Automatic annotation (TrEMBL):
Protein's name according to its UniProt entry: Bifunctional 4-hydroxy-2-oxoglutarate aldolase/2-dehydro-3-deoxy-phosphogluconate aldolase
Similarity field: Belongs to the KHG/KDPG aldolase family.
Entries under Pfam families matching the protein: Aldolase
Coiled coil ranges: none
The keyword Lyase appears for this protein: yes
Organism: Paenibacillus albus
Native organism taxonomy: Bacteria, Bacillati, Bacillota, Bacilli, Bacillales
Quaternary context: Homotrimer.
Amino acid sequence: MSQMLERLQQEKIVAIFRFIEDQYADQAAQALLDGGISLMEITMNTEGATTMISRWREKFGDQAGIGAGTVLDLDMAKEAVAAGSQFLISPNLDESVVDYGLKTGVPVWPGVMTPTEIVRAWKAGAELVKIFPMASLGLKYLTEIRAPLDKIPMLASGGVDLDNITDYFKAGACGVGMGSKLVNMDWVRSGRFDLLTERARKFVEAASTL
């Protein structure tokens, strides 16, 4: 098990930064760290993603685990790892990306939906799979697939909020990926980083009750 997966199983939350402007990025990341969330992914379709990844690795050191999201193919994976990504998350399964992760020692957590895809990712060497799109599939789906596939760690991405986060863990997720519910861009752009910290604390508190 990778150090990042261990960290995820302890902390249970990955914050997703998508389309954040570079000028706000550092303060937003610091706000989440202050609230107790240290695993963060910057999606590769965010402008300047690799620059931010490199900078955060330098700025936050061991305090944070910084990864790349929306890693669709091998080229993107190489770019993200070169920037210093400590883990790679995808919305899709590309075995060449999983293989690259195994060779470079960078965990790859691919996005899958069906039981066939889940097992395929696992057999390809993924230590964890991301069930996506969770908001559309719903909690019942997660509960059902966990029954036969309980040995495979699953990260649930989409649809998580304060009132249902514990339900995701009860359904068998080992962690959740959260975007706009955590990184509220209106707050970010208006400089209300204190609200980000407060929201992060509430999610951390809810996740730690299990």
